[in-house]
Amino acid sequence: MASYLQGKFKPKFPKKYKGDVNNICYRSSWELKYFLEIDHDPQVLEWASEEIFVYYTHPTTNRLARYFPDVYVKRKDKHGIVETYLIEIKPKHQAVMMSKAKRTSKKYLTEGLTVAVNHAKWGSAERFCEKHGWKFKVLTEDQLFKGK
User: Fold this and answer.
1) Cα 59 from Cα 67, distance rounded (Å)
2) Domain chopping of the chain, boundaries
3) What pTM does this model have?
């Protein structure tokens, strides 16, 4: 499970950051790990954290709300092609509904609501990215700690 480590991130390469370089916050050790990777990655041309928002419709209230994806990244791949991504960093249990519990507990219902809200946000983010020629990715522990 993601650690609840929180703090301010000070980039080693502040010119790559698009936004308030003095107000970069990480909300988990996973976000901190990812910020360190993209800050030091020479393929990353620019990045930002929670600087872009996307409107989505909340699945239970049916009201319009704002979603701030964790990271915006513009990078050049090994072939020189520039791609732009919106990235969300989440534990897998908040991204994928686990199999039905034998007994419907309050915890199971809460986790189900969390997954439903996240999917509403992410669907809107995918449509936003399609309009802008970007890509949307959700990174879980499976991607962040691959091969470790």
Assistant:
1) 13
2) 7-144
3) 0.84
The model's pLDDT over 117-144, given as tens digits with 9 standing for 90+, comes to 999 999 999 999 999 999 999 998 888 8
How far lies 54's CA from each of 2, 66, 74, 118, 125, in Å? 24, 6, 18, 13, 6
Bridge partners (DSSP) of residue 139 are: 89
The pair of structure tokens assigned to 144 is 């962040």
User: What DSSP designation does 17 have?
Assistant: B
Strand partners, 46: 74
Q: What's the CA gap between 118 and 113, in Å, rounded?
A: 8
The CATH code of domain 7-144 reads 3.40.1350
CA distance 122 to 60: 16
